[in-house]
């Protein structure tokens, strides 16, 4: 609990759920009207770290001091987490200021399926920040779901499938154009994916990610894996998490270059069973929490513990993001 003099008050909202007696997500509002979020974070960092570890996600709501991308950048800096460069990710993004980027810029009518950020590469963020600069006219929520809950339900319902995943892992394949394609949710071109226009440098950076690159006439094919699809969370009593982008790849990695059914397979080379992937999607949606964005909201997610997604929306909507090691 925060101290009596804390700048934070814990709040309840209708969308929250309880998993094993733990409310998800935690919601913090200002204890006093003039409370500034950046100063409050600096004052309460150890407590906020423990709260995030317990709940998996924290929504900061009602802090009038956060209105711009620069304000959001100050909040991210106040937490003191090290920045993670966005190397190897699939989403088209634009740097706004400092450590702040746009969230996935794919068209508003497209749903982005559940995933752990950059779970398809070895170096992924442990923390994600989202900030609502412009709230959508309708829709556009960022649904979140505790990963261990998904693992437990899948293990109970599809034990043989989960055993196979734990044994073999998965392989992700993505075909990239040369430049970014903003019409695609996975439209990041190879130049921005590897942050270079030099193919030799791109190959070196891919190798550091244990990623194979095959050059095509108009782009590149990247192959990642076999890579684990289940992780053991050592900081939370060894509990297992559904740490992958399997459903996102199988149901959402589709554009003029990519067939989602070929985007992810078992590490043994076998295709994934269609009906089980769609059952997993149903479980993800059942267990998820989708809180409508309000201007000024800041959402902090433990990427090791929580998957996220995006619902289609009526623009305008501007959500900014920051990734941390």
UniProtKB/TrEMBL annotation:
Residues 40-320 form the TauD/TfdA-like domain. Keywords: Oxidoreductase. It comes from the Eukaryota. The keyword Phosphoprotein does not apply. InterPro entries: AlphaKG_dependent_hydroxylases, TauD-like_sf, TauD/TfdA-like. One of its GO terms (molecular function) is oxidoreductase activity. This is TauD/TfdA-like domain-containing protein. It comes from Salvia splendens.
């Amino acid at each position: 609990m925060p101290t009596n003099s804390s700048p934070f008050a814990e709040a309840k909202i209708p969308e929250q759920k309880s998993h094993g007696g733990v409310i998800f997500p935690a919601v913090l509002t200002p204890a006093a009207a003039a409370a500034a979020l950046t100063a409050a974070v600096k004052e309460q960092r150890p407590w906020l770290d423990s709260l995030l570890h317990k709940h998996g996600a924290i929504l900061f709501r009602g802090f009038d001091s956060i209105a711009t991308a620069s304000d959001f950048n100050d909040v991210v800096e106040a937490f003191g987490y090290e920045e993670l460069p966005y190397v190897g990710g699939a989403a088209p993004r634009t740097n706004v200021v400092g450590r702040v980027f746009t969230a996935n810029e794919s068209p508003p009518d497209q749903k982005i399926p559940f995933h752990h950020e950059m779970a398809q590469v070895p170096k992924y963020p442990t923390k994600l920040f989202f900030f609502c600069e412009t709230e959508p006219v309708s829709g556009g929520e960022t649904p979140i779901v505790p990963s261990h809950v998904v693992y437990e339900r899948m293990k109970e319902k599809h034990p043989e499938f989960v055993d196979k995943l734990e044994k073999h892992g998965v392989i992700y394949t993505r075909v990239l154009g040369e430049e970014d394609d903003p019409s695609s949710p996975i439209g990041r071109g190879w130049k921005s994916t590897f942050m270079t226009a030099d193919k030799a440098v791109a190959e070196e950076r891919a190798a550091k990610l244990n990623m194979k690159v095959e050059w095509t006439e108009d782009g590149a094919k990247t192959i990642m894996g076999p890579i684990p699809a289940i992780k053991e969370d050592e900081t939370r009593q060894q509990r297992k998490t559904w740490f992958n982008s399997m459903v996102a790849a199988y149901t959402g990695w589709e554009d003029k270059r990519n067939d989602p059914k070929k985007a992810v397979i078992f590490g043994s080379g076998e295709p994934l069973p269609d009906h089980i992937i769609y059952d997993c999607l149903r479980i993800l949606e059942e267990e998820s929490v989708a809180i409508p964005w309000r201007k000024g909201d800041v959402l902090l997610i433990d990427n090791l513990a929580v998957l996220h997604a995006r619902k289609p929306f009526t623009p305008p909507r501007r959500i900014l993001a920051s990734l941390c090691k």
